[in-house]
Amino acid sequence: MQPWLEMKGLKKKIDDFQLGPIDLTVQPGTITALVGNNGAGKSTLLKTMMNLVKPEEGVIHLFGKEFDQYEDHWNQRIAYQPQSLIGCNAFNGKELMTFISKWYPKWDQNLFMHLVDLFDIPIMKRYVKLSPGVRQKLNLALSLSRDTEVMVLDEPTAQMDIPAKQMLMDVLVEWMEREDKALIIATHQVEDIRKLADYVVIMKNGKMIGQFLKEELTTQYKRYWMEQPLSFESVPGEITRKGDRLITTSRSNEAERYFLQEKLAWIESESMELEEIITVLLGDHGERKRPF
Ligand SMILES: Nc1ncnc2c1ncn2[C@@H]1O[C@H](COP(=O)(O)OP(=O)(O)OP(=O)(O)O)[C@@H](O)[C@H]1O
């Protein structure tokens, strides 16, 4: 199947920050979570996808076409929700809905009203007077109701309370089920990634560490408690070793094959938590820095 979004060798320099090279593919029907340290370049990458930031190198294909050949109204097929909306303060939710809905032929008024009701959004109150969490809820109602094929969300749940985050997960899952859709979401919330993502894109200091199938990460990253002390020889995918019996690996299939071949028995094995896996991939699995 042709990807809906494809980036190859994308690079962008902003002052002393270098983004890329980025190689990324988004298939219809998938949710991709963009994860990384602060300042990794997630927001810059999302803006590049939306043609708001011009890359110096590389190509972007959206729905099979390069940017300069984009079909008219391409932006009616992809919606982008930045971390904060500019220029909304003077208006209330109902007025914003009236402006925005005109641009999107598939605008779903029923969904908008459903989300207003679900999240208890006061749509007659001016945007500037809403709390950051309620603003995020309104932003989401204004984004999802566009009913575009691709939705790009930049940290949509950072300010939300716990029940709203839970409800949003359900809303996003339902939204994905409507027809072929793709969702790209930059987030620091492990829960979002755990519950929603099919793919996880890990970024660190402008570089893309990789695009991974979440299932593969959570099945391949494991720790083993060995019955006998291990030799010094390294185990396939070895990440860390504590003492001579506790080992973590990023390639559990190969590690288990190696253990069987070497007649090494393990007492117990455990899959690593997604949060730990991301920490390892971000290269922060060593000694913790002292807080002071
Ligand atoms: N308009 C700008 N002018 C100067 N530097 C910028 C601009 N926009 C982004 N940057 C720089 O680009 C880098 C990446 O920032 P970006 O906001 O994309 O990271 P991020 O991964 O989204 O971070 P966070 O997780 O903290 O939201 C940072 O070093 C930032 O200072």
Automatic annotation (TrEMBL):
SUPFAM superfamilies with a match to the protein in the record: P-loop containing nucleoside triphosphate hydrolases
MF-aspect GO terms: ATP binding
Residue ranges occupied by any ABC transporter domain in the UniProt entry: 5-230
Keywords associated with the record: ATP-binding, Nucleotide-binding, Transport
Name by which UniProt lists this protein: ABC-2 type transport system ATP-binding protein
